[in-house]
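Collaborator request, handled under Task 6.
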Amino acid sequence: MLRIAPMCQRPVRRTASGFLACLLLLSVAAPSTAGADGEVAVGGLLRDALLEGLNGPARRLSAFRGKPLIINVWASWCGPCRAEMASLERLAWSRRDRGFAIIGISTDDYVDKAKLLLGNTNATISQFIDTQLQMENMLGASRLPLTVLVDAQGRVVKKVLGAREWDDAESQRLIDDAFR
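Structure tokens returned to the collaborator:
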């Protein structure tokens, strides 16, 4: 039976830039595939974004187009996020010929905390940090962990809230079905 760990609620960031970003989001009409807060719903196309590298160089989200993508959104302070990280690493290594990419997006406020966790876990998956909330808002990551399955064209296929063992048979069936 699948065991899903509890989720973490994102602490509210009370910053002037966060307030201004909220005002800006409220003042701009969102496309039909996005919610009022800019979240891209299942079936919607992800907008391009520059991803700041944690364990490698910065990359554009559009650079991952052409094959399916698994995006795991996490934070160093989130216990369930830390619990599922090893299974994502095992998935990446066990299915190298998998036909999909896996990346992580940290929502930590402090780069050093995210890097410390990655160093302690020997992470090899490409990891990025979202200090400006752009990916957090686009993916709808108000609770963590959140894993988003994206098809080769950049369309959101599935969103999975909560931690899971990503290398177990049930999760691999979920991935295979989503990317079929």
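The cover message to the collaborator said: "The longest strand covers residues 69-74. The chain has a mean pLDDT of 85. Please let us know whether this matches your experimental observations."
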